[in-house]
Structures are given as structure tokens and as C-alpha cells.
Amino acid sequence: MEWHGPKTDRSFVYIQLQADKALKVLDGRGSVLRSISLKDQQRVEVILSSNKGNKALLLKSPKEYDLVLFFSEEAERSSFVGKLQDYLKKSCLELHVYEMKEKSLLKQAVTQEQRKRILDTFFRHLFAQVLDIEKTDAGELNFESSQKAKESLTCELSRAEFAESLGLKANSMFVDSMFSLADKDGNGYISFREFLDILVVFMKGSSEEKSKLMFRMYDIDENGFLSKEEFLRMLRSFIEISNNCLSREQAEQVTESMFQASGFQDRDELTWEDFHYMLRDHDNELRLTQLCIKGIPEVFKQNVHNRVSFIKKDSRRTISDGEDRNLNTVTRNMDQEGQELRKRPGRKANQYHLYTEAQRKKYQQNKIQQKIQEFKRFIENYRRHIVCVVLFSAITAGLFVERAYYYAFASPSTGIAQTTFVGIIISRGSAACISFMYSYILLTMCRNLITVLRETFLNHYIPFDAAVDFHRWIAMAALIFSVLHTAGHLVNVYIFSVTPLSVLSCLFSSVFMNDGSQLPQKYYWWFFQTIPGMTGVLLLIILAVMYIFATHHFRRVSFQAFWITHHLYVLLYVLVIIHGSYALIQQPRFHIYFIFPALIYGADKLLSLSRKKVEISVLYLDGPFGEGHQEWHKFEVSVLVGGGIGVTPFASILKDLVFKSSINSKLMCKKIYFIWVTRTQRQFEWLADIIREVEEMDRNELVSVHIYITQLAEKFDLRTTMLYICERHFQKVLNKSLFTGLRSITHFGRPPFVPFFDSLQEVHPEVHKIGVFSCGPPGMTKSVEKACQQLNKKDQAYFAHHYENF
Questions:
Q1: What phi, psi does 142 have (nearest 5°)?
Q2: 223 contacts 230 by C-beta, under 8 angstroms
Q3: What pTM was computed for the model?
Q4: Contact call for residues 67 and 38 (beta carbons, < 8 A)
Q5: How many CB atoms are located within 10 Å of the residue 477 CB?
Q6: What is the rounded CA–CA span in Å between residue 787 and residue 154?
Q7: Which residues contact 119 (CB under 8 A, 6 or more apart)?
Q8: What distance lies between CA 145 and its chain's CA centroid?
Q9: pLDDT for 160-169, tens place per residue?
Q10: Which range (49-53, 236-240, 319-323, 781-785) has the least confidence?
Q11: Helix (H), strand (E), coil (C) string for 388-400
Q12: pLDDT category, 744, cuts 50, 70, 90?
């Protein structure tokens, strides 16, 4: 069995000794888990445990993580060591074996998790050197100064680890080409110096250096020429990364068209000069392909008029001092990579460009800061929920305290409080809470009322969409107070069961008569021979049935059972009324809480029943459908901003707009800008399909889609940086996104709402009112609202913002 770490279960494995000086680890189905190369080792170190049983074995792997095996018995381990020794002897390798305690052996082992942490931190420091990022942001090497840490820090990357760092498969063409180019000494591993040499060119090299590196990367036979097949391999390597969004035939068509556009249609191979000439239109992008976290270098200020991040016509113009100061303010926290809008069929030469550059936020490394940020976001996202819960809880607590205080200090001297002080306080206080909760829980099920109130200003203060969740919360709280109420009465019954009849006749004159007997009633008399007792027992049974079948497990197993048992609430309210009507301790008070919500609930139910009697024609609907954003067509220019699942309402709007445009339907809306903010494009792949359909139907270019992927902007690790570079190259070559396969523009980071909205005023100077519709997390809609408020202070176009949170 292989040991993976102290917190990971062991797994059964098979060890296979290969003829090419490699050791393969297979799982129970024969699949290769990992391969350990022994080619560059002169000797192999094996550590055996000296504990009783002698079952553990550690095989050191200097350039990878170690292999730790546990055998069922010592004889099995000895047999393995013997076979390994014979194998290494045939391969002209030396085996060095020594022993230590099992605890020390496991501590000495470099596990896969440890190596991942070390490599991750080292990569951050590597990028900190290349990108001039503060080392405090890159993380610290806080591992023990032991031999295993030193070995790991001086290790080299295997092909599998290199591919894993990129988030790709080890057998992908891109990994194969990049790895072969970086592995200068040809030992099958990439040292950090070898990788740094390539990274520096990608991040800080000139356009010539970058194109030359790409040329060498795909010049497989190293003859100084790039054949059509090798060029096609380059395109296919990017296609492979993007989940095969283009077929081989399409890639071949792109290759032929690029050769023809550059005048190389009669050539079968290209020199580097030819290859660089083919990318002549992308020289600026190649030169600006880098990640700058600190302030803007002077060269960017001098060439800012060539960058798409700011609105411009194609004609050159100078930048005034005021504009230069604004430039510093707007772009201080943004990525410096020029994201040029790709050329599309039908685009006019003098068309304005939009400010679409993504913003980057500093990634918090400190765990405490991460927790604080998470807590702040929780408060921001659920502030309405928190206020409602706190207010409801405060009312409940107030009712409990009021009743407890009344029976403790302010009630008429009936003797009951003096006889059972604790029991009466608990039972009366919890009874008031139960009466309030079981009454007002009805309002959470008034569907018609909630639907109406959701469209009013109250929706900004009360989360009506969370009515069902609030219903569950009230129900759980009511159950707790019901148990507390029962506990209070158990105390009362115990005390009354040992109290003389002469005393009970004074306390409950309507129930007991003093016949001279000192024997009190038994405890079961209170439960099964009194109306409050019998109704109380029945209420507990009903509550138990309703709560059990309302759990997630039973709703999933049988929703019908949940639905039927939940209708016992009618009997529940009848029994609650009877339970308190006997007035054994106090006059009935349940009606004080129950009448108002019961009337509203009854009216809501009657409205639903009246609608069911109305016959309507059969309708066939096809979604998805929007809500709350249906006024988009009233504006000449509309901006739709969707975050997370909040993009759902906009899917039907996009399809409806393009359909009406394709049939030449008259529309007031002339342009739609759709901004999709998502952590990863795979989060909502169904929307990508809808956007692709919109792109195919949108012949009049009514819709402009911008996708902002925020997850990749959080860390500057190897995978993020390399895929960022690949995305830019893929967009330049194929006019498609590497990540989504769409023509829509893909950005990395958060959308800059203020510059984006400001640029709309120059793109559409004739429009005096722009509609902005956002749906998503409160943090996002709040940012949109602030941007609109800031721009509405200017004497220009007015931004009318409509938003919904989820």
C-alpha cells in the first residue's frame, strides 16, 4: 500500500520495473499513477523502517516527491528489496539501503502535498522576480530547514509536473512543444533557471524575441524553417487547450488563409523572418504582452493612444496633461496589458473603442485577512437577511422577557409562581414565543402577497426571495421553543405531582376540591386526563411527524409524503387554540398573535383558489425568461451586467433582441452591451452556448459581449500567466477566445464600470439616456450603482440603473 500523507488514506498499488530505467506505480485496475525515472541517478536510496514488523519502505526521488510503501509483512518487503536490487544491478545502478524508525521515516519523506506547496511558493517568488511583485505578496518559504526541503527547492520539474502547473495534460502538444524548448540539457526535466529564461522572454521580451521563441517552440525538426504542418501543429496546440473548440479542418483553413494573406500561398515552409512578418499586425500586442502590477511605466504613457483600453478613433492624437492625470487615476489598479478589440467583419475603420480593460484586485495571502474579507462579503451579501433575522429574534426575545418578568414579579398573587417559579417562567415565556412564531410563519407562505411586494420598494429592505428559507428558520426556532415549553411544563407537573391536594385546590380551584385528602394527582393524570395535557401530547406528535418528513432526506425520498404531512398544520392550529382555551394558568392569548396573519393567509389562499377555477388556454413556453429587466427595449443603448447565476434573466433578452433584429422588426434599442462576470467560463457553459448562438445570428452587430473571468486574476501563478499569454495569442490568430471558443471579448479581472460607462458617452454622443440593468451578488450591483451615480453627476448622458440581487 502507498502512503500519501498523514491525513490521506493509503491505497493499494502495484510496482512495475521497466526496462528503460523507470519505475511505474499502478493502481488496482492497472492504470499508471506515476512514473519515476532513474536515468540520471547513479545510486538509488531506500530507507527501511526498523520498528517491530518492519513494514515501511521509503524510495527517495530527488527530482520528484518520494514513494512510501507499506507491506503486509517483512518477508514481502524483503522480497521487493531483493528484486529492486537485482533490477538496479542490471541497469548499472547502485542501491543504498539504511534503516530508521518509522516515525522518522515518514517525517523524512517528501509527500506530494508538501512538494506542491513548495513549488507553488517558489513559483510565486519566481514571478515576483520577473514581474517586480513585492515578495510579501508572493508568500514566504516557511518550511523546515531540513534535507527534504533543500532537495525539493533544488529539484527540477518533470513533464507531468510542468503540465500540472499549466493545468494541462502531460501529453498535450502545447506542453510537449514548450517542454522540449525549455529543456536545454535534454535530461527530461526543466530546472528553474531553464524555465526562468523562457518566462523572461514571454513577460519582458520584445516582439521579435517573443515571435522567435514561438518559432523555435514549434520548429520540431530544428531546421530553421516552420513548415505548414508545424504551423498547423501550433494552432492545434492552442485548440487542444481550449477543449477542441475548432476542428482540424477549420484549423487548416485558418492556416491557408494566413499564408495567403501574407503572400506565402506558394510556400510550404516559413523562415523566422516570414513568421514575424505574418504577425506584423500584432507587433504592438506582442510588445505589450506582460503583467505589470506596480505603476504604469513611461513607455505605456507615451504609447497609450495606440492602446484600445481608451476610447479613440484610429487617427493619432496627443494626450493633454489633464488626461494624463486621469489616466494615472483610472489605470492605477488595472492590468497594463493592452486588450485590443479584435477586428470583426463589418467593423468601420473610424469606429470608437470602449474602455474594457479589466481591473485586478490584490490577492490576500494572509489567512486572517481572507477570513475577514469572507466575513465582510457575507455581511454585504446578506445584510437584508441579517436585519430581518435580528429584528424577528429581538421581538421574540422581548416577548419571552416580558412574560418571564410578568410572572416573576408583576402577576397577581395566585400562588402558582411561588410554587413552581422556574417552571412557570420557562413555560409562559416560551408559550409567548411559540404563539408569535407559529402565527407569523404563515406570512412566509403567502405566495401572492410576496409576488406583489417583490415588485415594490420594500424589496430593497426585505429579501422576499428568501421567504422559504425564512420559513425554515422560524420553524426550527419554534421547534426549539416548543421543546423548551415542554421542559417547563415537565418541571411544573413534577412539582404539582408532589404538592398536597389542599394546596392544589387553592391554586386550581376550578379543577380540584379540598376533600381532606393529602394525596395529589399522579403525573400521568396531568398528561392524559386534562385538556391541556392531551392536546399538548398530540401537538408534540404532530410536530414530530411534520418536522421529520420536512427534512432534506425525506423530501428527497418522497416529496409527496412531505406534502401530505405538512398539511397537518390545519390540525396543529386547531389543537393550539384548544390547548390554551382551558385557561388553566392564564387567559387565552394566542388569538392576539394569530388573527392578523391568519386573515392575510386566508385571503391569499382564497385568491389562489379563485384563480384555479378560471380556465385558460394551453400555452407552450420555451425559456429561459427574464424578470425585472424587461424595460431594456425602452432605451436606445442598454447595458446588461450579469454576475454568477444572475445572467439567467439576460439570456432570453439577448435571444429576443437578435431574433427581432434578424426579421427586421422595429426596435428602439440600437445597441446592447452585455457584461458577463464569472469566476470561470465553465461555471455556466449553457450561457456560452446561447452567446455562441447570438453571435451567429447577430449580423447587424447589435450585441457586444464582454466576458470577465475573475478567478484567473486572483493569483499570478504559472498556469494563470501562461494561459493569459496563450489567450492573447489565440485571439490574435483565430479571432476566438481560447477559454470560451467565442468571438466575444474575454478579459481577466473585474470590469471597470466607471471608465466603461464613461466611454459609452463618447461612443454614443447622441444618446441622452442609457439603461443599465444588473443582476447578481449585492457587491457587484453596488459597484454598478456607484458607477452610475458618479457619472450622473456630470452634465452628460443619464444612466438609469435597474438591479436585482440574489
A1: -100, 25
A2: no
A3: 0.51
A4: no
A5: 18
A6: 49
A7: 152, 157, 161, 165
A8: 36
A9: 777 776 666 7
A10: 319-323
A11: HHHHHHHHHHHHH
A12: confident
